[in-house]
Write a structure and sequence with these properties.
116 residues; 5 helices; 34% helix; globular
């Protein structure tokens, strides 16, 4: 087991995100917030001294994160909400975890996200 020199941020959709998601497609399965939050995106970020610094780091990159989250749902871009920082924090909350351990003695595989 090895310490990883990162912190983990779990990005959790909010009720506002769920309501927007349901509004985009009349045939959308009847998702609940617990279902939506049961398998969230986890981001690895640099280690910081405080959670506030992590939130600042996320805030500086909100556009890239927001776009990746919405793209994962394959919803027509014309239906996407305004992607500003206020809307990002309205759609997502974060959990910051400052201890990340790797249980494998193997190199990490790095792959681009959504055509980067």
């Amino acid at each position: 087991m090895y310490f990883v020199d990162r912190s983990a941020v779990v990005l959790k959709p909010t009720q506002s995100f769920l309501e927007w998601l349901k509004s985009t497609d009349q045939d959308m399965p009847d998702l609940t917030l617990p279902q939506l939050q049961s398998n969230c995106t986890t981001l690895l970020v640099p280690e910081f001294e405080s959670p506030e610094e992590v939130l600042g780091f996320i805030g500086e990159r909100f556009s890239q994160i927001f776009e990746a989250e919405l793209a994962g749902w394959e919803i027509d871009r014309k239906l996407w909400p305004q992607m500003d920082l206020t809307q990002f924090w309205n759609f997502f909350t974060v959990e910051v975890h400052d201890m990340v351990l790797d249980l494998l003695d193997a190199d990490l595989q790095i792959k681009p996200v959504y055509g980067e």
